[in-house]
From TrEMBL:
Keywords annotated in UniProt: Transferase
Domain N-acetyltransferase stretches: 1-155
InterPro entries xref list: Acyl_CoA_acyltransferase, GNAT_dom, MshD_Acetyltransferase
Annotated GO MF terms: acyltransferase activity, transferring groups other than amino-acyl groups
Name listed for the protein in its UniProt record: Putative N-acetyltransferase YhbS
Pfam families: Acetyltransf_9
PROSITE patterns listed in its UniProt record: GNAT (PS51186)
Transferase keyword on record: yes
Length: 170
């Protein structure tokens, strides 16, 4: 298995992978593959932060990050939104999701991003140091329940001493 930057020629296979992977996900609304398309078309898309995992030239995992603004008392903090992360069902529980998120975090840090945000299962993402945004004094202004809106400091204490608001739009 290796991780590489997603290419435009991968987009159809990514669409199919995301669609199929979320059919068996614990939490899904069935539109994750269309959300990927919407994110790519938006002005928050970061092509340098979309990755695929491959095994013998087969796509088995995907992650992408887009810009996510946080309104703070000192202005705007721009972090990244992880959406979506998926692994093909028969490759789950083998560390591929961990490898994808670790790689994406490292690349986001190299691009200067200080924090990552996502909507997801807190039991899964806690192992990657994601916690409810209110732990970091960031108020969730979306209609998504607070327990699923999570934040992670990409650099130590990067969210310390801020007070802010996040509005994740799905």
């Amino acid at each position: 298995m290796h991780i590489r930057l997603a290419q435009e020629s991968d987009y159809q296979k990514i669409y199919e992978l995301v669609q199929t992977a979320f059919l068996t996900a614990q939490v899904s609304d069935g539109t994750e593959q269309d959300f990927v398309l919407k994110l790519r078309e938006g002005d928050t898309f970061i092509p340098q932060l979309e990755f695929v995992a491959e095994d013998n030239n087969e796509l088995i995992g995907h992650i992408m990050m887009t810009k996510q603004n946080i309104q703070t008392q000192n202005g705007i903090l721009t972090g990244v939104l992880v959406a979506p992360l998926c692994v093909k069902k028969e490759y789950r529980n083998q560390g591929i999701g961990r490898a994808l998120i670790t790689h994406a975090h490292q690349c986001a840090r190299q691009l200067g991003y200080q924090a990552a945000f996502l909507v997801g299962d807190p039991l899964y993402y806690h192992r990657f140091q994601y916690f409810q945004t209110n732990k970091f004094n960031i108020k969730n202004n979306s209609e998504i329940p607070d327990q699923y809106v999570l934040a992670c400091e990409l650099n130590h204490d990067s969210l310390k001493n801020i007070v802010g608001e996040i509005n994740i739009v799905e």
